[in-house]
Design goal:
mainly alpha, rod-shaped
Length: 69
């Protein structure tokens, strides 16, 4: 009886170890691809926002200070 309980316990530990290993490996592989895409999109959004802000500040500056003749 003790042998059966120990064998089942060892089997459960091995199955859990395999599940943890496979899930961690898959998560690392998927997250790196998603992270690269997210970083690329975030950089593009940031550059677009900076360009819009630069344009808006230039337009606002022109309206505040008309050119002198």
């Amino acid at each position: 009886m003790t042998t059966v309980v120990v064998s089942v316990a060892v089997l459960v530990v091995l199955v859990l170890a395999v599940v943890v290993f496979v899930s961690r490996r898959d998560r690392d592989r998927l997250s790196s691809e998603e992270d690269q895409t997210a970083v690329r999109h975030a950089g593009a959004d940031q550059r677009r926002h900076e360009a819009e802000r630069h344009l808006a500040s230039g337009l606002a500056e022109r309206h505040r200070n008309p050119p002198s003749t």
